[in-house]
Amino acid sequence: MKKTQTLAQLISDTREKAGYSQRGLAIKANIDVSAIEDIESGRELFLPATVRQKLSIALKLSPKKIKSLEKYPEDPVKKFEISDKAGELKLKILEGQLKGNECPVCGAELICRVAVMYDLEDNMVRHPKARCSKCPFQIK
Asked: In what helix (H) or strand (E) does residue 129 lie, and over which residues does it extend?
């Protein structure tokens, strides 16, 4: 029975087989060494497309192989908790608390703003917007 490979194991093993140190891979892929450290330690489970592409080129891996090992939480109980927290976050953002909000998925800082729009009758409508600085969580 084959052991399931993680993203951290794939990057670490492939980097070592290629003969790169973490710093060497960071230079070859043109990304921060801290990003390599986060990936290999398992702290970073979801990669931006640019980082995935740079790693695939530097390590001669398929971007699909890397993406297949990325993780995004799919716990159904957590989805309800996230939607509750998202509702609370929307209220906080509308009240003007744009700094210090945490992502309900990964705990990283949220980048928040209030979008001001006008409806067909020229009434101002305010919409809370937020996106996570680390994972794909968004409030649209």
From this structure: strand 124-132
